[in-house]
């Protein structure tokens, strides 16, 4: 169920959705990550909120937040009631862009991922993290060039983990740059 509201004469909008997702036949890696084991069913109750606004003077803001309560609802007694793996309770992002005129623009944003469990028993917690990104662009007619810088401060973080061994943790991407050229026909 959701709703969208436009305000400030269409210069801003807000959306909200509330949902319940039920999944069955969920499988997870065993403790040594050598086999997949069925754990039963899980339920995720969530709320997502997002907003966008034209702030004037070429400034634009975008932001989003998600709250997820993901729980194993049917399984062995050891897992029933545990949080679903790799599902942060809180996540969000925020971006600000500035149109500099004459086709040029810049932007910067933050991405937040909350702490989450790496194993079905909820004994290993992967820490939450915040990364920063930046971008610059040039547009003229059908031509567009864009430069994105991801993980601006080269923050080390764990994006995923599987089981109780730290050897199974997957590090997040280091600082990276992507250049894009587009021509629209």
From TrEMBL:
Keywords: Cell outer membrane, Ion transport, Iron, Iron transport, Membrane, Receptor, Signal, TonB box, Transmembrane, Transmembrane beta strand, Transport. GO terms for cellular component: cell outer membrane. InterPro entries: Beta-barrel_TonB (IPR000531), Beta-barrel_TonB_sf (IPR036942), TonB-dep_rcpt-like (IPR039426). It is a multi-pass membrane protein. It comes from the Bacteria. GO terms for molecular function: siderophore uptake transmembrane transporter activity. Residues 2-152 form the TonB-dependent receptor-like beta-barrel domain. Its main location: membrane. It is found in: Cell outer membrane. Belongs to the TonB-dependent receptor family. PANTHER family: FERRICHROME IRON RECEPTOR-RELATED, FERRICHROME OUTER MEMBRANE TRANSPORTER_PHAGE RECEPTOR. This is Outer membrane receptor, TonB dependent. It comes from Cupriavidus necator.
């Amino acid at each position: 169920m959701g709703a969208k509201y436009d305000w400030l004469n269409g210069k801003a909008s807000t959306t909200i959705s509330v949902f319940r997702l039920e999944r069955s036949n969920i499988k997870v890696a065993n403790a040594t990550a050598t086999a997949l084991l069925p754990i039963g069913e899980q339920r995720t109750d969530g709320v997502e909120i997002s907003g966008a606004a034209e702030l004037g003077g070429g400034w634009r803001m975008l932001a989003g937040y998600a709250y997820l309560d993901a729980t194993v609802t049917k399984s062995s007694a050891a897992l029933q009631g545990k949080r679903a793996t790799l599902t942060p309770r809180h996540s969000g992002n925020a971006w600000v862009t500035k149109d500099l005129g004459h086709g040029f623009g810049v932007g910067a944003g933050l991405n937040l991922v909350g702490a989450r469990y790496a194993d079905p028993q909820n004994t290993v917690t992967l820490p939450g993290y915040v990364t920063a990104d930046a971008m610059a662009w040039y547009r003229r007619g059908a031509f567009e060039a864009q430069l994105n810088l991801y993980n601006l401060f080269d923050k080390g973080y764990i994006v995923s983990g599987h089981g109780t061994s730290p050897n199974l943790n997957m590090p997040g991407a280091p600082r990276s740059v992507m250049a894009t050229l587009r021509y629209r026909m």
